[in-house]
Every structure is written in structure tokens, then in C-alpha cells.
Amino acid sequence: MKIAEVGNVVEFKEGLQGIVEKVNENSVIVDLTIMENFHELEIEEKTVVNHKRYKILNHPNEI
Known about the structure:
The protein has one domain (9-62). Helix content is 6%, strand content 43%. The chain contains one helix and five strands. It has a five-stranded antiparallel β-sheet, with no helix packed on it. The protein is globular.
């Protein structure tokens, strides 16, 4: 299992995407405000995602 790094864009649940802001032992803290439809979804700006529950979309040096 590849663990995300700060700055990675990750996808989880049904298509939610965000930028990793902090990496913890079992999870990452993700900023969801990068999504175009963020305001329409009426969700919190940040959330915690377990390492087993996300897919890394890109790395900081690929942006």
C-alpha cells in the first residue's frame, strides 16, 4: 500500500478529491476545497481519510 505525501491529490469515497495537508500514522488530513463543486456539496473543508480508503491521483512534482 502506497501512503500519500503532503501535496498529493487523493480520491476517496465516490469521487471526492482533495489535497493531502498532513500525514498521520493511520490516516491523512485532506483539504476538499480544490473540487469545482465544493460549495454545492455543502461539506466540511477538511476531512480525515484512512490510508486504506484513498487512491493517489498525482504527486506534488507532477502538478
